[in-house]
Write a structure and sequence with these properties.
Blueprint: E1 2-5, E2 11-13, H1 26-36, H2 45-52, H3 58-76, E3 95-97, H4 98-108, H5 111-117, H6 131-161, H7 165-178, H8 183-195, H9 199-217, H10 223-237, H11 266-269
Parallel strand pairs: 1-3
Antiparallel strand pairs: 1-2
């Protein structure tokens, strides 16, 4: 039985992983990928002709398609297309497809199995310099990438709800590696790391996210991420009795250098004046001062010059 790989590249191998003679025939491989895109229906011949031979007329495209199908049959020595289908559909008795296994796992809710099947983007590194074909590849790639990311997020959230923090961090890290600019992915990882007692690691991912957005997209992080970073930073700075975390500090992260929109707030300005109790702590929700109404005024600040109280009886003799 032959095995067609479409995730992380495009290739086909024979029994026991032996290479086939189709390797240099790129349009033949592309035709197999088109047929594999739908396990049940395959692809119509007209659609395949439009994607692979857009530069020739209908008669020429039909002839090129027939020749390519024949070349595939000759090179493999097997009928990999299902003759019972009017479309170009792969015969599951002759060829297996990693894409089909991945999509079946997604549909069945077997998310860990699906994540294991996903070895890379659809047809990664494979190009034909055909505009419509490349657009088709990009659409399929985005759909599969989204399915992979959803599986990772489901695994991460379920692990955290079960209290399995190591597993949750593992899945969130893979999610951020897959999409490092995603707000929900980075935020989920930061909050999970902080809840697991690794705030410095959370801030390190925050800094990487900030740098990536600035250098690649000239953009700023979501306010949600900046707010989470500020809260983690404050938890590090203002421990009861001024205590710092017991875990050894990561020298690559200096919390004083973490840029946040609240770095000039009164709380941060008083960082060296002893322990500070955050407002709203009793109610179970930390409320940052000045979030909606501007900075919280300290005595003598923003209210004019500070003056000593006057003795109503006049100066003491």
């Amino acid at each position: 039985m032959y095995a067609l790989s479409t995730l992380g590249g495009l290739s086909i191998v024979g029994p026991e992983g032996m290479p086939t003679r189709l390797a240099p025939r790129r349009r033949a491989l592309a035709l197999l990928a088109l047929a594999a895109s739908s396990a049940k229906e395959g692809i119509s011949r007209d659609r395949a002709m439009a994607l692979l031979w857009p530069e020739v007329d209908t008669a020429g495209a039909r002839n090129s398609l027939k020749q390519t199908v024949f070349a595939i049959r000759q090179a493999l020595g097997a009928e990999v297309f299902d003759r019972a289908s009017p479309n170009l559909r792969l015969n599951p008795r002759e060829i297996t497809v990693d894409l089909h296994h991945f999509e079946h796992a997604l549909a069945a809710g077997a998310h860990e199995e699906a994540v294991g099947d996903y070895t890379g983007p659809f047809l990664d590194g494979f190009y034909l310099d055909l505009l419509e074909f490349d657009r088709w590849v990009e659409r399929v790639r985005q759909r599969l990438d989204l399915g992979y990311a959803r599986s990772l997020e489901i695994l991460a959230v379920r692990a955290r709800l079960r209290g399995e923090m190591s597993a949750a961090i593992h899945w969130y890290r893979r999610l951020v590696e897959h999409d490092p600019v995603s707000t929900s992915s980075v935020l989920g990882l930061m909050l999970t790391l902080a809840a697991a007692g690794e705030p410095l690691e959370a801030l390190k991912y925050y800094l990487h996210h900030v740098t990536l957005l600035r250098e690649e997209f000239d953009a700023r992080p979501s306010p949600k991420i900046e707010l989470a970073a500020e809260r983690i930073r404050q938890e590090l700075t203002y421990r009861p009795g001024g205590a710092m975390p017991s875990a050894p500090a990561d020298e690559s992260v200096d919390i004083a250098d973490v840029p946040t929109p609240f770095s000039e707030s009164p709380i941060v300005a008083r960082r060296n004046s002893g322990p500070v109790r955050l407002p709203g702590r009793i109610s179970g929700q930390t409320r940052l001062p000045g979030r909606m109404s501007g900075p919280t005024p300290l005595p003598g600040r923003n209210s004019g010059p500070f003056t000593l109280p006057t003795n109503p009886n006049g100066p003491t003799g």
